[in-house]
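pls read this protein.

:::
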Amino acid sequence: MKNIVARLLAGLLVALIAASLPLAALAGSGSWSTQASGLMVAMSDRASESQALSPPALAEVQRGRIERVNWRFEAPPGAAIRAWLCHPERCVALDGQRGSVTGLAGLSAGAPLAFRFALAPHQRPVQVKGLHVIVNYQ
């Protein structure tokens, strides 16, 4: 009797674990990363945009949906710049020179991204370099 109860409990536990997994997790996931050369940011009233940060031309990336994007860039110490990471459908504001965002979650992982930068008012032009993204998708 104890053996039957143990088997039933084990089967129930496996069923509960399987039911709690999102269907997307069963379909697989992945990531892609790329980098771009830097750019000069010279204006406060108009954003400067980096070259496109494009994903590889793989079928699973093209079908995937963004979960999280890790990013980084380098600006001179003390530079007062505003930064955004942009997908063709929307942009998210960045709060530093490195971090992670989920504000692009659900958008196509197969679309290119770009950084946008603008100077704070009365800031001297700055060179931003080391643009890098890692896109995690489902």
Notes: The chain has a mean pLDDT of 85. The two ends are 43 Å apart (CA to CA). Strands lie at 30-36, 39-41, 48-49, 66-74, 81-87, 90-94, 98-101, 114-119, 126-137.
